[in-house]
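Researcher: I'm comparing several assemblies side by side, and this is the next one on my list. It has 687 residues spread over two chains. Same procedure as the others: predict the full complex and return the structure.
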Amino acid sequence: YVSTYADFTPQATFDIKKCDLHKLEEGPPLQAVLTREEGLQYYRTMQTIRRMELKADQLYKQKIIRGFCHLYDGQEACAVGIETGINLSDHLITAYRAHGYTLTRGGTVREIMAELTGRRGGIAKGKGGSMHMYTKHFYGGNGIVGAQVPLGAGVALACKYLGNNEICVCLYGDGAANQGQIFETYNMASLWKLPCIFICENNKYGMGTSVERAAASTDYYKRGDFIPGLRLDGMDVLCVREATKFAAEHCRSGKGPILMELQTYRYHGHSMSDPGVSYRTREEIQEVRSKSDPISMLKDRMLSNNMASVEELKEIDVEVRKEIEDAAQFATTDPEPPLDDLCNHIFYNDPPMEVRGTNPWTKLKSVS
Amino acid sequence: MASLRSFLRSGKNAVSAVLRREFHGTPPAAVQVTVRDALNQALDEELERDERVFLLGEEVAQYDGAYKVSRGLWKKYGDKRIIDTPITEMGFAGIAVGAAMAGLRPICEFMTFNFSMQAIDQVINSAAKTYYMSAGLQPVPIVFRGPNGASAGVAAQHSQCFAAWYGHCPGLKVVSPWSAEDAKGLLKSAIRDDNPVVFLENELMYGVPFEMSEEAQSKDFLLPIGKAKIERQGNHVTLVSHSRMVSLCLDAAAVLAKEGIECEVINMRTIRPLDAEAIETSVMKTNHLITVEGGWPQFGVGAEILARIMEGKDFFICF
């Protein structure tokens, strides 16, 4: 096929759902402008996350990836939408369902997959694994539920302290939303007007416990009490983008923290050891897939407004698949970290030291 | 009596000072400084030296510090650098760790280390382990400080010594100063260290004065973390201790000296990394070892020292 740029609509305006507001007079705009370039970029990134997670599922079942593996498919619009609402110079921290964010924050599929398989080409040299991936201004990947929220507020404190006009996006799930340390953080972030966007990714289940069974109030966007909040459709990448832009503006103008609740869904179980059907029905999963899939939603919007062609999107799919295949190939064949890396990276900027081994004649070496 | 006590505590330094005075040499410009003032000096100097350093904790600002360690700092540096927090240890410890990750150099004060138990997840899982899990991508330059161990009749919940608990974890440095010089030199080193440091002070030592040499009064006086100090030389028995119990050891050494038993008193200064070499060298000389600590014996600091000695290459030579 041959189609030129002039054949396609360069940009279109879409109506997006109104957000539920808490302690806010006005919310984000009800319309979003999407350019063709943006649409293709969001599509590509979401598709990359989707295929990467499905590949990880496959490798896990082949026992090439082991340990913990929490997959993000279904929630792509959150990661992609948030990143388009902020800058790479801003900061972001999340919990353990972090592969998507590692990508949007600058990681490559290759280094993410090699980290999942625990090889030396991994983003953390194979020493972090699924839950401990880091890039510039991305503080992981955190295993302890809720612990990342005070950390995120601390990053925001540093932004305010250094006066660099940067903000911190601090993510947690519906399960973590009941953690005490999160309320402690709401208090301090609000008192000190920290430039922090708290985002609750509500995927309806904290591990196997549905939100109604875990929270006395499932209005997570109101749980910040004195902190203004928004609840929005987390399956619509444009909704997420507009809300994030709104929230970022709120923070940068010195008004203090703001809370966003993204209503989203995960297709996989909590982790690879959870089939995900003992506490929810297959029908429910199927319904969300057919009616609210974030990638399908964007695709339909672009096609029905002549912003892209079916072939073009198929070509992106093929490119993405190839990228994932290459990355999986690398991740499977790259060697594991060498044994003398075991005790490295204990201390930073310290001279090399000896580490106690299992017996007096085995001393292990550690370098910074 | 007070001068005799401070003579005993100052050990070698006081003896040489006295000798020098007798021979009409230039008297050293040493002064008496309490541990509290030494800590205050260290904090002041480091806050002045590096803009990224700041102090947060309960009552550190307007109250001048629950034990007055941060007296005068809020007046000098203001709200931005000396931050009063609500009584939410888990929250503010996490905030401090996050700030360290993003490039600042926080000093997080726990009113006592008993309350650090509320925040221990942030100290261990967020601070200590991160540099390792990120394979060197994310350092955490933070100091957690506060009084540790028993005080005067404050009951069980307020008297625990955390040296063994924190000393167990790789990725942390754990420091336990005794004298004013220790306090100043080690706190400055801890603040300048790019790793998480747990700095265990002792409330009952805050008011105790020590002689501080001219060298120690300088703004760049640092003591290395991980090196013990021999406070008193001796040939017959090695006493190893940290923090307040060093005073107890020196008092005991004075009593035993009258019976002709010369104790070598080692002030550990650092719990982790443990200066096993210093202790081993001393035990090779004396062939007798007693560890003295304020923590419980099981799985404790003394237990670790004994294990190290028994695993050491020279243990069987002692026999």
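Model: For your comparison table: The first helix of chain A runs from residue 36 to 61.
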